[in-house]
Amino acid sequence: MERLKVEGEGGSEILLGIGLASLASLAPADRILVTDANVRHHWGHLMEGERVLEVGLGENAKTLSAVESLYEGLLRFEADRSTCIVGVGGGIVCDVAGFAASTYLRGLDFGFIATTLLAQVDASVGGKNGVNFHGLKNHVGIIRQPRFVACDFQCLETLPDREYASGLAELVKIAAIADASLFAFLEAQVEALRNRDRSCLEKAVARAVALKAHFVAVDEQERGERKKLNFGHTLGHALESHLGLRHGEAVSLGMVAAAELSVKRGLLAPHEAQRLTALLDRCGLPTRVALDLDALLPLMARDKKRQGRHLAFVLLQGLGHGVIQHLEVAELREALS
Ligand SMILES: NC(=O)c1ccc[n+]([C@@H]2O[C@H](COP(=O)([O-])OP(=O)(O)OC[C@H]3O[C@@H](n4cnc5c(N)ncnc54)[C@H](O)[C@@H]3O)[C@@H](O)[C@H]2O)c1
Ligand SMILES: [Zn+2]
User: Fold this and answer.
1) Each residue of 201-235: pLDDT tens digit?
2) I need a labelling partner for 227 at 20 to 30 A (CA). Which of 76, 107, 139, 233 fits?
3) How do the domains of the chain map onto residue ranges?
4) What pLDDT was estimated at residue 188?
């Protein structure tokens, strides 16, 4: 097992290679688990005797009413200030459970056992918790660090291929913005990664988590540097809600578009953009889609990172180096069409 620290307010500990089977050593006895039906179906035998609440499945379940249902469950279980909430699942479970825990009784302790690759490399680390609101992604939420995040590699065995590939997108993302050597590692090991080769996976997840922890440590409140983690997400979020794609699939398309914009601005060499597209392709992720700009641009214009007429857009200045540039919506339209 490997341990990493995330410096932030409260700080949290990331544990790699431990999980649900070691629940008792991860969380205090006064705990309530939050999970979803799929995780419970596969791994419920490791939750026997626990107090368990469920959130619904899919992006549409990430709502204030899901949070309210959790509050009702917490009330029913008579949770108090000493109760620890443990989210066991993917990004949806972590986002909703973290938000409910952060607001119930003005904030309970919480931790995550991340059971999807996406939650391990991204969603569970960094303390962003929240829900969608009126069709806007992650519009209501809070930044508050979990006590612990456990990346459970055993649970990944039952993760469907499409969900697994979606997680690979966030791995490629962090490599593209922050670590050229991780990018090269992913290129060299993509087959092994797709086959879920354990040692390869552990190396990649450990590096991704360390990089994410660094972004959080230098800029927990996302005033500057941390914004780079949104590479591929401005268009990605719009596509995710518009086309009903998995989060990572939408981010993959968003990254291809952002790389092309980077080439147009003279920041990225065309062959580097091609390397990114080829890697995403080999991960089994979508890299091409017909865009309905009239529907997408208004969605992008409502992005949280908008300031006036400008969108803070993450571009690449070479592979492994993200930069934030401001784009007008009109420029974006021209570039994307
Ligand atoms: N808070 C953050 O910093 C952050 C960062 C990135 C993404 N996110 C959010 O994360 C969400 C996506 O997360 P996700 O891709 O993990 O989705 P998810 O939580 O919906 O999980 C994907 C699917 O896999 C199932 N599943 C989970 N673990 C399983 C397992 N071990 N075996 C079998 N099935 C399993 C789930 O039930 C679900 O159907 C998005 O809402 C995104 O916005 C948040
Ligand atoms: Zn993401």
Assistant:
1) 999 999 999 999 999 999 999 999 999 999 999 88
2) 107
3) 2-158, 161-336
4) 98
- CA-closest residue to ligand 1 atom 18: 90
Nearest ligand 1 atom, CA 58? 20
The CATH code for residues 2-158 is: 3.40.50.1970
How many CB atoms neighbour CB 274 within 10 A?
A: 12
Type of residue at 215: F
Residue with tokens 């087959």: 191
* Residue 284, burial from CB neighbour count under 10 angstroms (0-12, 13-18, 19+): middle
- Ligand 1 nearest atom to the CA of residue 156, by list position: 31
Burial class from Cβ neighbours inside 10 Å (0-12, 13-18, 19+) for residue 215 reads buried
SS3 127: coil
CATH number of 161-336: 1.20.1090.10
User: In this structure, is the dihedral angle defined by the CA atoms of residues 211, 212, 215 and 218, taken in order, positive or negative?
Assistant: negative
Ligand 1 pocket residue status of 146, Cβ below 6 Å: no
Residues designated as active site: 106, 128, 170, 212, 222, 226, 230, 233, 237, 247
Q: How far is CA 246 from CA 84, 187, 274, in A?
A: 30, 22, 23
Q: Mean pLDDT, the chain, as a whole number?
A: 93
- Ligand 1: does its nearest atom lie under 6 Å from the Cβ of 127? no
Ligand 1 centre distance from Cα of residue 314 (Å): 23
Q: What percent of the chain has pLDDT over 90?
A: 80
Same fold, 2-158 and 161-336: no
